[in-house]
Every structure is written in structure tokens, then in C-alpha cells.
Specification:
The protein has helices spanning about 1-10, 25-35, 45-55, 75-80, 110-115, 115-120, 125-140, 200-205, 265; strands spanning about 40-45, 65-70, 85-95, 100, 105, 145-150, 155-165, 190-195, 220-225, 225-240, 240-260. By secondary structure, it is α+β, with helices and mostly antiparallel strands. Strands 1, 2, 3, 4, 5, 6, 7, 8, 9, 10 and 11 form an eleven-stranded mixed β-sheet that branches.
Length: about 280
């Protein structure tokens, strides 16, 4: 990958420096060293790598870019469908003391995405890891999470299979959970999925691959700028592929909170592209 990055960067006449990091802490230190106005910092990896760079750039004038070579690459799919080449001011969402740019999920989705036994298992081919985790958690699923949801003066309390707060359209390696989402429209789309029997749950999960869940009466969608999710015990959350746990999540959309460079020539050159 380093050789490929050198070739395409020189071909495109980009002034660049490549930094190799052996840990998230080391990567964060490098990002903070280079976060100056006008600089472009490119996360090379999946949605989790984008998330870590985003959190180090939040509140600065540094431009975020990415090269999707991870397991899911879901934010790339949204950008490919919604953005022409160039620099765009996009929304980001604060969740407690962190930020995300694509999606946050709570419930069985988070349990699936956070399960390192499958998601980072080198013995399972990358395209199949999420599906293996889905199967395991489907068969071991007991009951939904009892959660309270607050937004725009409304309160909903129910047992949920999952809740997804979306700034992007995809999650889980290509599941089109929020087909109407735009990363720069000033709103997050939130999907509340009621708890259901396993036989219905399987059909709902499979239908999400191509947005078929939108016709399901157990799926409710709201658009909002702020949201609270409250549980009587700590639960898993997954933000851009990164694990999080709490019993209280405060979400607030930050309009045009980060500058994003999307350059299809750089991302999808024959040297770098590995995402369909």
C-alpha cells in the first residue's frame, strides 16, 4: 500500500508525507502534530480509522480525507453516491465526549459490530466477518434492549431490537440502513426498530441490505438534530465501527462540523482502489 500511495501521489502531483502508525495512540499523536489550517490528513483504513482521525481533527480547520482499505468502508459508499470531487463541509455528530461521521447503533447491531471474535478474525475472509457475527448473535439473541428515547420534546420507551442514528447511508459492510441520509443536510436520520420474534428478526436484518426494512411496520424513522438514549444498565454502542459503552448517550448534530476532501481519482485509482 505504501508503494501504491507513493505512485498515485506523485502521479497526481500531491505534496505528501506518509506516516506509519503502530497504534491508535501513535496515530493520534501524528494527527495532532500535523493539524494545521489547509493541511489534508488522510486516514488509510476503514470507518474506524476515519473516526479516530475525525476525533483528533474536530474543532480545527484541518481537512479530513480517507482511503478506504478497511473491513466495512461504509462511509465511502455514501460519499460515492452523494459527493462530486472536491472539498465539502459535512456534518458530524457528537455522542457524549466523542464524535462520529457515519452511523451509531445501539442494540444487537452494536453487539454484532463489536464482537472481535468475528470482526477482526484473520481466519475469516474480510467480506464474511460481519455475516458470521450476524449469524452468531441471531442464534444467541434473547430479547431486545429496554430503552428510553428523547428527542424534540418527545419521549418513547420500548424494547428495541436496535436503534441506528445515521449521518451516512450504510453500515455493517454495505447494509443500506438509511438510504435518504445526506452527510451535509443538518439532520440525522434515526431508525427505531421494535423488538420482535426471531423469525421476523431474520427477515428484517436481511431486508436491510437493500433498504427493504423501510416498509416494515416495526421500523420507525425520525429526523432530528438532538437525541438522548437512556438505559437502566450500560449497553454497547458502535460509532463508525468503534466500540463504546454507557447507560446514557447524548447525541447532537454539528452542522458543517468538518471539511472533507473526496477525490475519486485518488481513492479509486488502479493503485489504491479495493472497494466496490
Amino acid at each position: 500500500m505504501i508503494k501504491r500511495l507513493n505512485r498515485i501521489s506523485r502521479k497526481m502531483k500531491r505534496d505528501f508525507e506518509i506516516l506509519v502508525n503502530e497504534s491508535p495512540e501513535q496515530a493520534g499523536s501524528a494527527v495532532r502534530r500535523y493539524r494545521n489550517s489547509g493541511n489534508i490528513i488522510t486516514a488509510v483504513g476503514g470507518d474506524g480509522a476515519i473516526n479516530r482521525v475525525l476525533n483528533d481533527l474536530a474543532g480545527t480547520d484541518t481537512i479530513l480525507s480517507f482511503l478506504p482499505v478497511g473491513t466495512g468502508n461504509d462511509f465511502f459508499r455514501t460519499c460515492k453516491e452523494t459527493f462530486p470531487d472536491g472539498i465539502h463541509n459535512v456534518d458530524m455528530i457528537r455522542i457524549n465526549d466523542r464524535y462520529f461521521i457515519n452511523t451509531a447503533c445501539f442494540g444487537i447491531d452494536a453487539d454484532i459490530a463489536n464482537d472481535d471474535h468475528f470482526i477482526h478474525n484473520r481466519f475469516i475472509p474480510r467480506p464474511l466477518r460481519y455475516h458470521f457475527s450476524v449469524l452468531f448473535h441471531f442464534f444467541t439473541y434473547a430479547k431486545g434492549r429496554h430503552l428510553k428515547v428523547l428527542y424534540d420534546g418527545n419521549e418513547i420507551e420500548n424494547d428495541f431490537l436496535t436503534i441506528v442514528a445515521a449521518n451516512g447511508r450504510y453500515y455493517g459492510g454495505g447494509y443500506k440502513v438509511s438510504p435518504g441520509s445526506l452527510p451535509d443536510d443538518g439532520l440525522m436520520e434515526v431508525y427505531l426498530v421494535d423488538s420482535m420474534p426471531k423469525i421476523r428478526m431474520a427477515a428484517t436484518i436481511l431486508s436491510m441490505k437493500h433498504a427493504g426494512h423501510l416498509k416494515n411496520p416495526a421500523v420507525h424513522m425520525i429526523r432530528t438534530k438532538e437525541l438522548q438514549i437512556i438505559s437502566d444498565r450500560p449497553i454497547n454502542a458502535c460509532i463508525d465501527g468503534e466500540a463504546m459503552q454507557s447507560d446514557h448517550f447524548d447525541l447532537k448534530l454539528i452542522p458543517k462540523g468538518i471539511a472533507l476532501e473526496f477525490n475519486s481519482e485518488f481513492i479509486c485509482s488502479e493503485e489504491t482502489c479495493n472497494v466496490s
